[in-house]
Amino acid sequence: MLSLLFRYFSYEHFYVIYCIFWELDTDHDFLIDKENLIRYGNHALTYRIIGRIFSQVPRNFSSNIEGKMAYDDFVYFVLAEEDKSSEPSLEYWFKCIDLDGNGVITVNEMQYFYEEQFHRIECMSQEPILFEDILCQIVDMIKPEREDYITLRDFKGCKLSGHIFNILFNLNKFMAFETRDPFLIRQEREDPSLTDWDRFAHREYIRLSIEEEGDKNEGIEVWKRSVEAPF
What we know:
Blueprint: H1 11-24, E1 31-32, H2 34-37, H3 40-43, H4 47-54, E2 69-70, H5 71-82, H6 87-97, E3 104-106, H7 107-123, H8 131-142, E4 149-151, H9 152-156, H10 161-169, H11 171-179, H12 182-190, H13 196-228
Antiparallel strand pairs: 1-2, 3-4
Keywords: Calcium, Metal-binding
Pfam family, one: EF-hand_7
Protein name: EF-hand domain-containing protein
């Protein structure tokens, strides 16, 4: 029962989502397009997965404007992206990877999405991992009933399912997982009752608060200089 206390939407959560949306929505028309969303998380996501989102495969947009995501669509996206352990998130990303919509994810479908990751790692002048090795890693992690495809049931039965999606389309989280970021590991151990979303929202809230405070201080300094300047 205690874990249920964390399943609420706080002001901190709202503040983080709204501020990130506002940062991406450069013309502030309360709609974002592909080029806006590709900047999410410091360009963490691939163009191929962004394309699937804007094809409205995992979820129909409420904006009713072609190529535009509204605020409530973004809320659904960011919750799915930052907590890939939840069932709604697993269903969201499963639909994205399931290119033909037949209810299973094949080796070819996984390879299609990993190709872009592979090239991005190459562009960073790092040694990319071959897909064959990635496939072995995925199979070892998820242990599907059949090795030639993965079902949604397989994903829901594996605690590491979120990492598999990161391998396929989120470069930053993939690299963090490969290097086993000690900061993230320590966070998880300190309070295992918190979800990935809770941890993300807290980190972002601190970052945004510091930036806001910095902007205020800079504004005060500019004002002071203007007052003290001789006429």
